[in-house]
Write a structure and sequence with these properties.
The complex is a heterodimer of chains A (711) and B (184). With 711 residues, chain A is α/β, with parallel strands linked by helices. Among the domains of chain A are: 146-327, Dimethylsulfoxide Reductase, domain 2; 570-710, Barwin-like endoglucanases, CATH 2.40.40.20. Helices cover 30% and strands 15% of the residues of chain A. Chain A is built from 26 helices and 24 strands. In chain A, strand 8, helix 6 and strand 9 (195-199) form a beta-alpha-beta unit. In chain A, helix 8 crosses helix 12 and helix 8 packs parallel to helix 13 (304-317). The longest helix of chain A is centred in the first third of the chain and has 17 residues, at 79-95. Chain A starts with a strand and ends with a strand. The radius of gyration of chain B is 17 Å and the shape is globular. Chain B has one domain (4-182): Alpha-Beta Plaits. In chain B, the strands form four sheets. A four-stranded mixed β-sheet of chain B has the order 8-1-10-9. In chain B, strands 2-3 form a two-stranded antiparallel sheet. Chain B contains six helices and ten strands; from the N terminus they run E-H-E-E-H-E-E-H-E-E-H-H-E-H-E-E. Chain B is 21% helix and 27% strand. The longest helix of chain B has 10 residues, at 18-27. In chain B, strand 2 and strand 3 (56-65) form a beta hairpin. The chains are: A alpha/beta (711), B alpha+beta (184). Chains A and B meet through strand 3, helix 2, helix 6 and helix 7 of A and helix 1, strand 2 and strand 3 of B.
Chain lengths: 711, 184
């Protein structure tokens, strides 16, 4: 079944999952390039994917823990033994009426990912890291105009017209987490005469290509855009026909009353952007044929919901919804269901953030995916008994990851672990594996089948892509999808009556008149290519309870959150004396967050072709005040943790902030553990410890942290 | 004069390093199984320069590969005729068979782009993907460039294209056969 030549498949070095071609020669992957039938580009991470495939560190057979959790000692077992262990424990859990105490943490590759099906059949929960990154944006957009975009629904930069504004507010699209084609699309739009505006406490490559860089105090995005909206509304520069037609009656008047005192001058005091610049930005918006915003890190702060709300208000009053150059409202490919479909757990009855006695502190916030940080809380409260992790690394990627590591080693009086089974499927050693009871060797994208159709792709969701194996799998590795289909057949045969993963995808693809074979014969993609603009006009309504755009969040009236607060996150408004710096943790194109895949990739940690250092960036003004020089080793300390790290002076960071890259600090994996670098999550507080503050203002996001720096 | 060239547009280069890894994969410069960071050869590298004081900053990124020099100091340093400037293309080529591994060319290269294979004892570097370009394809770095900051062709044609787009040649950087351009 394996052929030589350029074979279409999908990259999985990050969640963008770009369509690629892999050149196979004598059964070995030699090269990668963008699939010209897709968007034709692969970034540096994707190019380095071959190194992940063939690394000597690949996990090759199933293993069972032999020491205590955290000791990292394992012995080889068979797949049969591994399946038996999982089946026995999950069956026992179900038989004692605690099926809901099973959570699978994963990144689903489609809304019907077979692993997710297994979880639903079990009566367990799915949790993902996605809510950390995007919940403020997703919830805001669902509330205001009833659509589901997350960070991958970036503006469609290829549709931005001449004169249109592309506003990046705490976003690094050149990092290619949407699609590797995005940098080209942005620069092409600039060549057409669109303007690029970058709002960020850090001057990065995007700022170097921008028409205007606006340095901002972290967390100031909501106030900045409330100031812009104030100017637009006070001067009748908003899109009146759009608002008259689509905004719920009364909301515009109430918005105007609320925003009256959010003047550029008042908002400037919060975000520290000069009022004249806020007015200048508002005037540019008023004159532009379109404006879009993309945000990522800024939507992870403790005021994420406020910022998301202000963001949607801005889009609405300027009429930038589902138009060329505005905010896309994506559709999803209409796949066929694989009957019978196992029901999802009853969230209304069980709730998903089962945080024991603290649960009522987080009652207002509702989201359909369980955040991964809840695990530490739930273990402590005996609400989580079986945890499986695939393509995620909670021992490192959790805010306050130390709490996660502590929780998984907590024991009952009889000496047994509170968390009864911890399973990790991975391709390489990871921090989470160190704590696991079972380690199952997973397959890379070059060895596995996968059908991808997500509502959050940069391809506006309206398409499907096939990941197909192009070479023989390494060792005894098996793809997690296939493993949990087989476990499903053993435990719930009624829901797993299809032959295998390929047949499952075939049934789904029938919904669009396709099959796995037809996709294979047609470049691996089903992509009609029409995003569709202003679909709300065809539908005659928005997907909200009223059918109109709902600017005022009436359901939060009792919580006092009908309108967005311009205030900075609480964490930035307290403790300034003791912890004078705001931590700015950021990403690069070279390393895909805390995952073992790119951190353990020799080409991505090579200083020439990747990144092999993570010093603390501070402005020379701050260094002078602290008496620090380039290269000095310092302690960065927050209220919950501290790390030792060298200083790097740079003009590229706003004074008062300290920057480090997200994702370093591994102790597992020969490549990933290079150097004495540290993880930002050692400084960030455990999310579960601040539920009341997060409840309405922050959603699940929680990276707002103050630090002090000393020698 | 026949001279093939690569033009680097600083307006579009974002320093993403995609070309470095693609070049390594294509030319087989890596042992994916065992190589560690810092041990791999590279025919191309990224450089950047930031100027100014917060918040008035400017930054450019670009790539540096063999500049396929006009006067080839590497070839002049080679006593074994292992280095030639190809008459048909202007590409500077290394002959691995003739190379004795003396390392003189590495010392003399002003751009520090020549690599050395310790296992098989020979010097090697970017050959502008000679096997591709002589059969109608672009060099790999040009082919994969994320932002299409690189273009390939005969030097005079590329200069003409740059002028038509309103780009200025950065003379200090473009003294050999690789051209660096930017909008003034």
């Amino acid at each position: 079944m394996y052929e030589d030549g350029w074979i279409p498949t999908i990259c999985y070095q990050c969640k963008a999952e770009c369509a690629i071609l892999a050149r196979v020669e004598n059964g070995v992957v030699k090269e990668v390039k963008g699939n010209p039938r897709g968007r034709g580009k692969v970034c540096v991470k994707g190019m380095a994917g071959i190194t992940s495939l063939y690394s000597s560190e690949r996990l090759k057979f199933p293993m069972k823990r032999v020491g205590e959790r955290g000791s990292g000692n394992f012995e080889r077992i068979t797949w049969d033994e591994a399946m038996e262990i999982m089946e026995t424990k999950l069956t026992e859990l179900r038989d004692r009426g605690e099926a809901h105490k099973f959570t699978y943490s994963m990144f689903p590759h489609s809304v019907t990912d077979p692993k997710w099906r297994f979880v639903n059949a079990c009566g367990g929960f799915i949790s993902t890291g996605l809510p950390h990154c995007d919940s403020g944006k997703i919830m805001a957009m669902i509330h205001t105009f009833g659509c589901f975009p997350n960070h991958h629904i970036a503006p469609m930069y290829n549709t931005v017209p001449k004169g249109g504004l592309m506003i990046l507010s705490g976003r690094h699209p050149f990092g290619c987490l949407d699609d590797a084609c995005v940098p080209k699309h942005i620069l092409d739009a600039k060549d057409r005469g669109a303007k690029l505006i970058v709002i960020d406490p850090l001057y990065r490559t995007e700022a170097s290509k921008a028409d205007w860089w606006i340095p901002i105090k972290p967390g100031g995005d909501a106030s900045l855009f409330l100031g812009v909206c104030n100017y637009l509304l006070e001067n009748d520069l908003h899109n009146v026909p759009f608002c008259d037609k689509w905004v719920r009656e009364g909301d515009m008047d109430n918005l105007k009353a609320y925003i009256k005192d959010k003047t550029p001058e008042a908002m400037s005091k919060i975000c520290e952007v000069p009022a004249t610049d806020i007015v200048k930005l508002a005037k540019m918006v008023a004159e532009a044929p379109s404006a879009c915003i993309d945000a990522f890190k800024s939507i992870m702060y403790g005021n994420a919901m406020d910022w998301g709300h202000a963001w949607t208000i801005f889009l609405v009053i300027t009429g930038n919804l589902d138009n060329p150059g505005g905010q896309p409202l994506p559709d999803i490919a209409p796949m066929a269901p694989v009957e019978p479909v196992p029901p999802a757990p009853d969230l209304a009855e069980l709730g998903y953030h089962r945080t024991g006695k603290d649960r009522e502190k987080f009652d207002n916030y509702n989201f359909f995916l369980q955040p991964t940080w809840y695990a530490a809380q739930a273990i402590k409260e005996d609400a989580l008994k079986v945890f499986i992790a695939t393509e995620c690394n909670p021992a490192m990627s959790e805010m306050g990851s130390n709490e996660w590591r502590k929780a998984v080693t907590m024991k009952n009086e009889d000496g047994s672990y509170k968390l009864e089974l911890l399973v990790v499927t991975e391709i390489m050693p990871s921090e989470t594996m160190k704590w696991a009871d079972l380690v199952l060797p997973d397959q890379t994208n070059y060895e596995r089948w996968e059908l991808l159709y997500m509502p959050w792709w940069y391809n506006f969701a309206h398409g499907a892509a096939l990941c197909q194996p192009v070479v023989k799998p390494i060792g005894e590795s098996r793809h997690a999808n296939s493993v949990f289909i087989d476990l499903g057949k053993r435990m719930f045969p009624e829901y797993f009556a299809f032959k295998d993963d390929v047949e499952y995808y075939d049934i789904e693809l029938a919904g669009v008149g396709m099959s796995v074979k037809k996709l294979q014969e047609n470049g691996g993609l089903w992509s009609p290519g029409a995003a569709g603009f202003r679909k709300y006009e065809d539908n005659g309504k928005f997907n909200t309870p009223s059918g109109k755009i709902e600017l005022q969040w009436q359901m939060y009236k009792d919580a006092g959150q009908e309108w967005p607060s311009p205030e900075l996150p609480l964490e930035y408004r307290r403790g300034e004396e003791e912890f004078p710096f705001i931590l700015v943790n950021f990403r690069t194109i070279f390393l895909n967050n805390t995952g073992a895949w790119s951190q353990n990739n020799a080409q991505l940690r090579d200083p020439i072709s990747g990144l092999d250092a993570n010093p603390c960036l501070i402005n020379p003004i701050d260094a002078k005040k602290l008496g620090l020089e380039e290269g000095d080793m310092v302690t960065m300390e927050s209220s919950t943790g501290k790390i030792e790290i060298p200083i790097k002076l740079t003009e590229k960071i706003i004074p008062g902030c300290a920057g480090i890259i997200h994702g370093f600090g591994h102790t597992m994996g020969k490549v990933a553990s290079r150097g004495n670098w540290s993880s930002d999550n050692e400084l960030i507080a455990d999310a579960g410890s601040t539920l009341d503050e997060q409840d309405m203002r922050g959603g699940e996001a929680h990276v707002s942290t103050r630090v002090k720096i000393y020698k | 004069m026949r001279q093939l060239s690569i033009m680097v547009d600083l307006d579009r280069c974002i320093g993403c390093k995609t070309c470095i890894v693609a070049c390594r994969n294509h030319h087989g410069l890596i042992d994916h199984e065992n190589d560690q960071p810092g041990q791999m050869a590279n025919y191309i590298r990224v450089e950047s320069k930031t100027e100014g004081v917060f918040p008035n900053l400017k930054e450019d990124s670009w790539v540096v590969m063999c500049q396929h020099c006009k006067k080839t100091p590497c070839a002049k340093a080679c006593e074994y005729d292992a280095i030639t400037k190809d008459e048909q293309t202007g590409i500077v080529l290394f002959d691995q068979e003739k190379c004795t591994g003396c390392g003189e060319c590495i010392e003399k290269c002003p751009y520090h782009v020549i690599q050395f294979n310790k296992v098989d004892n020979y010097a090697h570097k970017c050959n502008m993907c000679y096997e591709r370009v002589t059969h109608g394809l672009d060099p790999i770095c040009v082919d994969v460039c994320l932002t299409e900051a690189l273009s390939f062709g005969e030097k005079e044609i590329l200069l003409m294209q740059a002028e038509a787009k309103g780009k200025q040649v950065i003379k200090k950087m473009s003294t050999q056969s690789i051209i660096y351009v930017k909008t003034p």
